[in-house]
Amino acid sequence: EKQQLQNAPEVRLKLEQAREGILAEAYVNERDKTILPTEQAQETYARGVYKAEPKRFEIPAESQASHILIRGTTPEAKQLLADIKAGADFAELAKKHSEDPGNAAKGGDLGWFAKGRMVKPFQDALDALQNTGDISPVVTTTFGYHIIRLDGRKPGSQRPFEEVEKELRAEAVTKAQQDQRQKLVRELRAEGKGDDKALQAFIDSEKATRN
Q1: Residues 149, 154, 156, 160: is their CA dihedral positive or negative?
Q2: What is the spatial distance between Cα 89 and Cα 107, in angstroms, rounded to a whole number?
Q3: Phi, psi of 118 (to 5 degrees)
């Protein structure tokens, strides 16, 4: 019965397609090993990408802030704000009253974060603070009522070329291999090596790997 199935025309066709696909992939993989751009070509590619795509290597501006979160009523938050303005220690009030379990014990310290990480009302209130140590009015978000203190700001910058050169050189090699693979697949089709459907499946798998 197994032999009969193997001899069935539709099974034989699929087996041949699979065989041709495997042979095509092996052929392309073998040729792949010979593709290695020169050191100069890798550096040229790396410097070209670094210059042409500056946003890719940006380090965004960051802020450091602390907050006190109150989930109860606004008057409680307003009273805490009044206490802070009267000289009460922000960190101590955060430890005692903040209802954010992630940072209350740290005096409300949220650490450093890029713009856009916080919900919009929080971010807008933080952006309005000018100097380190400035305190926001009570800010309402979906989480509750916040009192925010600006603790610091770092301007945006760009990763130096020396830091990204290695990964860009590796990218140059990968791109050269991908380009060569596409070329080889076209050659295979032109020469009739490999079933068209099997080759297309191979191409699709290569695209999925790149994505």
Answers
A1: negative
A2: 10
A3: -90, 160
